[in-house]
Task: structure prediction
Amino acid sequence: MTGPSSQPSPEDGFSILEMIVAMTILALVLGIASQSIVLASRSITAAKRQVEAARTVRVMLADYEARPTVQTTTPSGWTLKTRTIEMAKAKVTAVLIEKTGGAFPGGPFLTFVPVRDPGTP
Result:
């Protein structure tokens, strides 16, 4: 009992059309994958900028609360501006922190803090 012969025949292997289709699918998949990698790296860069900006805003706001001043500019281009607003029952200070040149991804940061008495530490 012998099996069928294992001699190669002309029908064995892939045709040129099958190879072209396979290479086209491979090119599409690689193109989509590379675009995904580029988009992910841009997202990571934007997230890093936002985290750094948020850290800077927190530091400047903590510094302002420690020793209130009217306006402060840091060497990195961040500016802190304040304006006292009197309302019917209270006084608040509007604190605007922004990066010169509009480079802050989320725009300027605005918050309100209550006005402290000069004798209060």
